[in-house]
Amino acid sequence: MNTRFSSLVTIKKSDVDKGERAVQNANKDLQNAKKALEEAYLSLKDIELPSKGSISQMLASRTLLNSQRNEIIHNKEWVKYAYSQLKSTQEQLKITMIEYEKFKYLELEETKKILKQKQLIEAKELDEIALMTYKKNN
Asked: Whole-structure pTM over 0.85, yes or no?
């Protein structure tokens, strides 16, 4: 049964679906960021420091360590950003779901109201028919 809230409910439902997809994407981004950070730490552990050799080898090793540390710092910032994005999309989804539930409730109440009016009209018609048949029999 269509009410004046039916179209709003369908729109709000599509907004909820979009919000759920956004939360899933944000969660996926967070997982990718955590995985990249973990891989950066593993790469740092794999770097072997030369104990002997020329200065150029030691400088190259030092440069490699610094670049790996910078990558770790970058990935930590990425994890922090992805986490904040996830939290904000979850909050937005929560707001959207509240709006959807509100309009769904209003639609339900409107439907109940319409059904009640139909039942009253039907009861009046049945009373009229009963009166007509009673008068006809007497």
From this structure: no
